[in-house]
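Now read the record:
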Amino acid sequence: MPFFFLKLDLNVMVKLSRRAVALGVISSPFVSLGGAHAQAKRKVTFTLSWVPDGSNGYVYVAKELGYWDDLGLDVTVSRGYGSVAAAQAVGTGQFQFGLAAASSAIQQTAKGLPLISLATCGYDATMCILSLASNSAIKSPKDLNGKKMAVTTTSGEYPFLPLYAEKAGFNFKSIDFEQTDAIVRNRLLVSKQVDAISCFAISVVPSLVYNNYDPRVFSFHKAGLRLYNYALITKPELLKSEPKLCADFTAGLLKAIKYSMLDPDATVKAFLKQLPEVALTKGIAEQTRLGLCMTSATIIDGPTLKSGLGYSEPADYESMADLVMKYVASPSDKRPKTSDLFSNAFVHNVTFTPDEWKKAQAIADPSRKYLGY
């Protein structure tokens, strides 16, 4: 069967008219609808870390169902060009808010572009080494010794490979590495020119599964490397000067994340309605749904039930900052104070009832195997 790795080269600037009234959406508990609708909408700029896909599909729920609109926010969503670029774009003021891997935000703060996370959108970046189940020679990480692996040196998981090898019990120096870009890397795997690749599972697995390949995932997270997925980031000065804007933006996003966890099928419909050009791509609905469910699984695996959706664990940020400074930072970078990297001020309001939590778990559970859990 032909294999397609999707690269959606989009310059998506989504500007949508308000839909909440027409759809009968219940207003957010964080603000009065009357005041928001009586005033002109506040224009807000927001960047993804990459192209629209299942890992960020909830953003389009917030747009389609009017969650931000109900709070008086007219949000423009732009595609991203990687977490580092997204963190830099927010840090330099090109966007007010953005999604970026937490480690990338920490890295840029260490370089002098202070950023703060307002919410955690996943507790596992899904960094991994990935092989195919059809390769019977690799059934555990230790089987990677002496094997050939394709890597992309600019990919976020690459700097942590030596640490993962140490924790997983194989000899990093024994690996025959082939350096290439992400698209070629993935093709080398399915054409069996390499035994494995390093990557982010959430970016690669949905396309593999859609095209009837069975991925075998060796998770950095399972080996004890707790590196968060997307953080909702902004500049500390914006949080200080406009706390209500930050609270409202966070509230709309978290409400959309909860919706996506409880109804991924409706989320896919909202996603494709917002992005009709993406909807033309073969298999995109199935791949988006799997990406959404994988994201949900990384959220369920965190402290959400105890502390609220979006909560950032201080000990995890301490550990991530240490890892970034050791494996990613330049000698001139300065380690930021851990408490300056995140805020939990706005994350205690979106919670799950016991029945909702069971439903979210049941929906996400089938995707856990694709994360290596």
Residues 30 and 308 are 15 Å apart (CA to CA). The first helix runs from residue 20 to 23. The mean pLDDT is 90.
